[in-house]
Design goal:
mainly beta; 19-stranded parallel beta sheet; two-stranded parallel sheet
Length: about 350
């Protein structure tokens, strides 16, 4: 009698590997791709079934998963926005809402990685309600990422290694702290407040208030900039920025007016994502020029994974010889795994 080794069984091996990592309590799987078996076919049902702290693994698909609301602390992991998995599909989300519920934590404590998302926003109660301990890592966000919404309190956010079309702040400025934005490529950014920006590549003309900005690359034509009460360390500006508010601190003092082509390996990048390789050439003024003596931009500091492969063990190769076995025979399986 022959037993066929199917893709669903391979994904069981994958789930066991993730469980062996012991990073997260329980794993639930979601797929709306008819070629891939999973416990659930839609994300809202999986969220309803999950307990606080559980992990939901979302398979890549050519069908958008639609809008979702996270109303408890969860870990959501997709295959990356430019995955190299066997299907080649990302896990696409429409609007992703982080719920803020008066008197309880809502989505506080949520971790989101490896997804292709249209918008990330808040829902529920807003004014002076806290949404804390949020991590958004290695995603592509094609619309807005809202940090807070209508005076939300935000503490301990980490936004790392993403491609982000736009970041907008709407926070309780008197009660917000520890927002880290590092190693992202960002097109637009509005009203950044009380945050630390490190090793980002930022297009157009962002405004900062009470921020520390280090090892970043700014790409835009010469312009006036209204940032205030912020500190700029070891940044590179492709054109002269005239900071009109005298409350900022610069080290070195002439960084905004000593301008240079970043010299990306992928070529000239005057518009957002017009190239796909943002490594710096060794001749670049940003090479090893960071406060930590690594490159400016996304490949300095903690670095960057193009494609958004999530930081969990991933199956990148498997081999079955043969793909069936007699009832009393052996099935030889080779599985290769990387932890990104």
């Amino acid at each position: 009698m022959k037993h066929i080794f199917t893709l669903s069984r391979l994904m069981l091996v994958f789930a066991l590997l993730l469980s062996a990592n012991k990073a997260f309590p329980t794993i639930l799987t979601v797929s709306n791709n008819i070629a891939i078996s999973a416990q659930y076919s839609d994300i809202p049902t999986a969220i309803a079934a999950a307990s606080s702290g559980d992990t939901i693994y979302i398979h890549g698909s050519n069908v958008n998963y639609g809008n979702i609301t996270i109303n408890k602390p969860l870990v959501l992991i997709g295959p990356g926005y430019g995955p190299t998995n066997p299907t080649g599909f990302a896990a696409q989300i429409g609007y992703l809402y982080l719920d803020t519920i008066t008197g309880v934590s809502g989505a506080s404590g949520t971790y989101i990685a490896g997804l292709y998302i249209n918008y990330i926003n808040m829902t529920g109660a807003y004014n002076s309600v806290a949404l804390n301990n949020i991590t958004i890592r290695r995603n592509q966000i094609t619309g807005y990422l809202y940090i807070g919404y209508s005076n939300t309190q935000c503490h301990n956010w980490t936004i790392s290694e993403n491609l982000i079309n736009s970041i907008s702040y709407s926070i309780d400025q008197s009660n917000t702290s520890n927002i880290l934005v590092n190693n992202n490529i960002i097109s637009y950014m509005y009203n950044a407040y009380n945050s630390i920006y490190v090793n980002d590549i930022i297009y157009y003309n962002p405004t900062f208030s009470v921020c520390t900005v280090s090892n970043c690359i700014f790409i835009y034509s010469a312009t006036n900039n209204s940032s205030s009460n912020s500190t700029f360390n070891n940044n590179l500006f492709s054109s002269a920025f005239n900071f009109t508010n005298g409350s900022n601190i610069f080290s070195p003092a002439n960084q905004a007016t000593t301008n240079s082509d970043p010299q990306f390996v992928g070529g000239t990048a005057t518009t957002y994502l017009s190239i796909s390789d943002y490594h710096l050439k060794t001749a670049s003024a940003g090479h090893n020029a960071g406060t930590d003596a690594t490159d400016l931009g996304v490949y300095g500091g903690t670095s960057f994974i193009w494609g958004g492969t999530p930081p969990v063990p991933m199956v990148y190769f498997y081999n079955l010889k043969p793909n069936y076995v007699q009832s009393n025979g052996n099935l030889n399986i080779t599985v290769s795994v990387k932890n990104q």
